């Protein structure tokens, strides 16, 4: 018996072969701090989202789903058509009635998967749901996967290997468990997943980031499908994170993973091999840091969407020709990357619009005169033009003295509501709050009844009843 046991230990290579599988363990030292930071950022992000109007909220929702679709596919080496992904997402949300002008199975598939994950974030995980996600992901690709003998929407029944390199340099880095035990392994995984959700009253609750990390490693270790396991795993990770919220939060977990793709694959490999046993401490710490970064990225993207909204509102009266409008829109197409970062020159303007050199010069000059673009300090051939973002915008228009008294009351109440929202969100004094206070006091025109309302609200911020007016 002893000799057999020693032989088994020497032949074990992967975590699913470990005698303690799947009883994962981890050390909480240093983890609680990351989770606390994640929770704080989550709360701030949810507060920020709650202040968006419906148009900006819809745009943020679409934008971040597109980011998730693009990045989760890039991790697997697939480059998607961004415009078609966006159109597919918008169509699934009933925000776009256009039809695709071509065959975009991969774009449609990943968009439908991510939408379904968000629609079902309050539902328990099941085999049917996971297999349906696999069908959605690989929609329209039946003939391709039939040639590879891969069943779409069905657990695999044969072996599966993960390899790196190619040709003579190809190396097997992971082997999934035999196909005949995939069904039972997935059943254990699903039972654990549902029992650890806070949606289950009888659950042994595990915080979202930790549960998401374990779910990701467990699912990829089983590798239940012939293809698409990475994308489904990241979808399940998002589903696990979403279940800690009342509404699906706005962030893309695959964006920071893609930015750290080499580390991601390294951590997955290290944690799935036997030398890591079933201890997931390093993996969970790395993954929870990623979830925190995902929310920071989302906050920056929402800030950008607000800047875009402010920009177009500021220039809503500007008369632009089709070329100028196209180029201005292109600046916002890829977020803070692309033209926002690099700017545009005359040659680029010509190639994007198909106009002549003289027309490009005239159009660009017109955009500068309208304060839409600003030229770089360097001239000549190095001259580039950058979008002129509006850094600040009054929340409400302040009417001059002498206007209708009812209108003044409405404006004051709106300002007061905005001050309350700011205090509830930030909980500390900030520049935006100072600006709102100044506007309110200016419009109150010294009337004590209005100043007292402001004083009562500001005393809540300081807790000690101190007055700022």
From TrEMBL:
Q: Which PROSITE patterns does the UniProt entry name for this protein? A: FIDO
Which portions of this protein are annotated as coiled-coil regions? none
Q: Which domain of life is it from?
A: Bacteria
- One short Pfam name that applies is DUF4172
InterPro entries of this UniProt entry?
DUF4172 (IPR025230), Fido (IPR003812), Fido-like_dom_sf (IPR036597), Fido_containing (IPR040198), WH-like_DNA-bd_sf (IPR036388)
Q: Which residues form the Fido domain?
A: 125-289
The record's annotation in PANTHER family points to: FIC FAMILY PROTEIN, FIDO DOMAIN-CONTAINING PROTEIN DDB_G0283145
Name the UniProt record assigns to this protein:
Fic family protein
């Amino acid at each position: 018996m002893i000799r057999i046991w020693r032989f088994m230990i020497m032949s074990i290579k992967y975590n699913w072969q470990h005698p303690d599988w799947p009883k994962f363990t981890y050390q909480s030292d240093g983890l609680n701090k990351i989770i606390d930071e994640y929770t704080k950022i989550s709360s701030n992000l949810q507060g920020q989202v709650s202040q968006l109007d419906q148009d900006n909220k819809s745009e943020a929702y679409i934008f971040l789903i597109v980011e998730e679709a693009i990045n989760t596919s890039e991790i697997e080496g697939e480059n998607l058509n961004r415009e078609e992904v966006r159109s597919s997402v918008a169509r699934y949300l009933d925000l776009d009635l256009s039809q695709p002008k071509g065959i975009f199975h991969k774009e449609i598939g990943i968009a439908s998967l991510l939408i379904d994950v968000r629609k079902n974030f309050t539902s328990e995980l099941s085999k049917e749901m996971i297999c349906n996600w696999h069908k959605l992901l690989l929609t329209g690709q039946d003939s391709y996967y039939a040639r590879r003998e891969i069943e779409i929407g069905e657990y695999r029944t044969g072996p599966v290997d993960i390899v790196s390199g190619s040709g003579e340099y190809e190396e097997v880095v992971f082997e999934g468990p035999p196909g005949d035990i995939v069904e039972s392994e997935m059943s254990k995984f699903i039972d654990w997943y549902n029992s650890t959700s806070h949606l289950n009253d009888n659950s042994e609750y595990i915080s979202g980031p930790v549960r998401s990390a374990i779910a990701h490693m467990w699912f990829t270790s089983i590798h239940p499908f012939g293809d698409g396991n990475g994308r489904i795993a990241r979808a399940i990770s998002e589903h696990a994170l979403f279940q800690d919220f009342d509404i699906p939060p706005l962030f893309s977990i695959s964006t920071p993973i893609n930015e750290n793709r080499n580390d991601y694959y390294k951590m997955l490999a290290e944690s799935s091999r036997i030398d890591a046993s079933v201890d997931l401490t390093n993996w969970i710490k790395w993954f929870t840091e990623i979830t925190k970064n995902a929310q920071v990225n989302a906050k920056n993207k929402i800030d950008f969407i607000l800047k875009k909204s402010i920009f177009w509102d500021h220039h809503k009266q500007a008369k632009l020709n089709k070329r100028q409008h196209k180029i201005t829109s292109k600046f916002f197409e890829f977020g803070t990357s692309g033209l926002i970062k690099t700017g545009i020159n005359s040659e680029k303007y010509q190639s994007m619009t198909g106009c002549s050199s003289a027309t490009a010069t005239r159009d660009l000059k017109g955009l500068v005169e309208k304060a839409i673009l600003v030229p770089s300090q360097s001239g000549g051939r190095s001259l580039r033009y950058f979008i002129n973002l509006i850094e600040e915008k009054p929340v409400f228009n302040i009417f001059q003295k002498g206007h209708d008294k009812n209108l003044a009351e409405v404006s004051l109440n709106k300002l007061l509501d905005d001050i309350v929202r700011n205090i509830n969100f930030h909980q500390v004094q900030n520049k935006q709050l100072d600006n709102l206070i100044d506007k309110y006091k200016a419009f109150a025109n010294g009337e004590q009844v209005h100043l007292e309302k402001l004083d009562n609200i500001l005393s809540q911020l300081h807790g000690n009843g101190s007055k700022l007016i």
